[in-house]
Amino acid sequence: xxxxxxxxxTQIDQILINVLSHNSSINLGNMLxxxxxxxxxxxxxxxxxxxxxxxxxxxxxxxxxxDYRLRxxxxxxxxxxxxxxxxxxxxxxxxxxxxxxxxxKIMAPSVLFRLKKTDDPLLFVPLGNNYFYLVHKWGxxxxxxxxxxxxxxxxxxxxxxxxxxxxxxVTLMTPYQVxxxxxxxxxxxxxxxxxxxxxxxxxxxxxxxxxxNFNPAIWNNRYDKT
Length: 226
Description:
Layout: E1 6-7, H1 12-20, H2 28-35, E2 55-57, H3 58-68, E3 71-74, E4 82-83, H4 84-97, E5 105-108, E6 122-128, E7 131-137, H5 144-150, H6 156-173, H7 185-209, H8 215-218
Antiparallel strand pairs: 1-4, 2-7, 3-5, 5-6, 6-7
C-alpha cells in the first residue's frame, strides 16, 4: 500500500488554512479546538449518508486493538503525524451532514500517543451507543505481521506457547553436542528445558522492568505503565 504523505503537527494550522480556505463558513480555531476536544458520546449525522462498512461497535474496535496491540484514545493524546487527506475528509463529512464533528478518537500503536507516566492510526468519530464511524485510515498497522507479532501478548497462555515455541527452535539451533560426547534424546530435552527457563526469565524481567501488560489491559488505557 502506498503511504500517504504526512505532515508534522507543527504544520497542522497551515494545512487547515489551505483546506478550509474555500469554505469561509468554517472557523480554523474551532476546527483545531474540536480536533483536540475530549471524546463525547454522539455526533449529529444524517445516517442515510453514512457508509455502513465504516461503522464499528466498541466491541469490534476492542478486538482489533487486542489482536494488533493498538490503543484507542482521544485524539488529544496523539503525537503522530496527521495527513492532509484526513483533515479534508473531516471537512467533507461536516459539509455533507451539515454538522460540526467533535470527540475524535485514534486507534494507533502506543508509541504514537503522549502517554501519562506512572506505526499508523485510524481516525474515528462517535455515533452514540458505543458505535464509532471511521473517518480516515492511513498506514498499514493492521497488517498480518503486526497481528502475528502481537499474538503472544494477548494473554498469559499465548505468551507461554510463544516461549515454548521459540525455546524449541533455539534448542534445535544449539550445537548441544559440545555439552556431551554421546548426545541422546534426553540431552536434547534437558537443553530445551534450560533454554525455556532462560528465555522465560528474560521475558519476565523485560515485562516487569518496563511495566508491560497484556493487550486487553492497555487497549484503551492512556497510561504508559499499567
